[in-house]
Amino acid sequence: MHELSIAMSIVEMAEEEAEQRGNVQVIAVHLKLGALAGVVKDALLSCYEMACEGTPLEGSQLVIEELPVAVFCPHCQVERPVSSMQLFCCGECGTPTAQIVQGKELEVVALEIEEWAHNPA
Amino acid sequence: MGSQPRLVEVRKNVLKQNDLAARALREEFGAAGVFVVSLVSSPGSGKTMFLERTLTLLRQNYRVAALVGDLATENDAIRLARSQAPVKQITTGTLCHLEAAMVQNALQEWDLNDLDFLFIENVGNLVCPSSYDLGENLRLVLISVTEGEDKPLKYPTIFNSADVSVITKMDLAAAVEFDWHSAYGNIQAVRPGMQVLKLSAKTGDGMDEYLSFLTARLSEVRTAAAIARETPCSSR
Fold this sequence. Notes:
The complex is a heterodimer of chains A (about 120) and B (about 240). By secondary structure, chain A is of the alpha+beta class.
């Protein structure tokens, strides 16, 4: 279970990015999560909420786009999805391949921000 | 109310801090000419016994040292110290994996130039260590025959983060009716082309082949480093 430390890194990263942009509030953080990143989506979502507590990101949303594993097929000479996580073969022709081109991502891709207009207190 | 929400692009790897630390380590290892092997496995697969034998045998001809990660206790470091090699324990508290910064901290008092091989035993865990680069040259995933042949199918991520598989406790293979072909096939299914070594750290069977593999890799890395040094465009 390392999702909490990952969530804390995401919050920290988003805070820094928001600070650089001045007087803004982060509404959502958009994340790309590959199937081979070693991170569980649901665990990360609940950890994110915890990690946001007491920070300027409290109440923000984590929007996760899950990316399946894609490999380069040496036979078809193109990127293909894998047959399954238990079978690293070209999803089309079945040629085994370990050339992973997608699936290891753990990346903050965008922030949804809003200028701070007033304090909703 | 505030203005309309807008989307701004960021594109940053969440593990950037770790990746930067790992890159710095890799450069340091390369400059010192030390070959670094990390071990990952589930708890109880025999990492420590395997490492103790590795250190004892390699020590006859090479300068070796080890870092060992555990949630708590210095037990593994005490066991490994029997090999007479320098050993340091990293206790992670509640953290389920090692991170590059912990390796950096643990190495502070050691001069890497005094080493040929450095081994890093990760916390016993087949999930979390897969996300963290430690700057190692080679990541070795261990499974023991007592764990069942389908381990690779259950943990495809760690097999895809490792370079080589080692099947240990082969001396128990018959007793637990271990099916080598099935295990090998499962590794190849989740990681086509992965090299698989089988051995028993206890009886020593298969250790020679494994040690030859390591020493060949050390020579490769040193040759590549020597060529890089002689090339005019090298930064060194």
